[in-house]
Amino acid sequence: MALLVVGSVALDTITTPAGRAEETLGGSAVYFSLGARCLDQVRMVGVVGPDFPVSEKQFLADRGIDTRGLTTGQGPTFRWEGVYGQDFGDARTIRTELGVLASFQPGLPEEYRTTPCVFLANIDPALQLDVLDQMEKPRWVAVDTMNLWIDQQREKLLEVLARVDLVFVNGSEARQLSGRRNLFEAAAFVLDRGPRFAVIKLGAAGAMIFVGDAPFVLPAYPLGSIVDPTGAGDTFASGMLGYLAGSGRELDFDAMKTGLAYGAVNASFAVGDFGVSMLRTLTREVVESRLAYFLSTNQLPAGAR
Ligand code: AMP
To answer: 3 alpha carbon to ligand 1 midpoint, in Å?
Structure first.
């Protein structure tokens, strides 16, 4: 089942304890597409400015991503700058320049509208709703967001939550959204807003998925060295949703548990080097071989695989 993503396409400037990268290819839709294309057919919706390198647009298409929904608007490409502290925890945003994203009105190519699986990656919730309104009865919809939108577009975001099956948030976003310190209470708050499943990402500590009040927890993929956590959340979602859409499995708790393992594995390819470096050449074989190792160190419950 094909997978449609709407999100940012960016030029990122990133500083981590391991170094700095300037104006490097990024954005939630880019990380997601580069991760998910190894597991399923991906259709991308986004916008860049005329300043976006032609070679990068070509690169995305060459990787097999359907970029018919990636348009060129008038104005600068979206730019984001973030800095990470010694613990490689949540990024501190230094600069967000929406550029072409500020006036983006996604008009979906006709063939995109019947795509069965949809990921509303991190972008203004008003745009997420815009895309959702154009879809014809998707089988399932998942969403991701960030602190900026929880802060500035809370009502719109709650509207989105009421219309999706699965939500991704990290621990601090779950607390910010719910106003609860305790993550179990925060997950209950999110699920009360409508989605069937909530994934709370905990960085190096792994991720939890909640259905009702039943949680399931998986650690992160064990990596000796982390270089740049940017895109970890988007590539986590790419592994999980790429697996779920590509396998055609129903969204049940067992399938979700396997999805979580694919998420952890894909995220490990985002954080091992700056920007999308490792994702540029990623293949399904490499994903599966890391997954096999990961599952040899973490047993999934019977039924999950
Ligand atoms: P992640 O580290 O998975 O949360 O995602 C990092 C990506 O999110 C970066 O490549 C940024 O370009 C992108 N990003 C940062 N802020 C925003 C925003 N306000 N809207 C959309 N994308 C953003």
So the answer is: 20
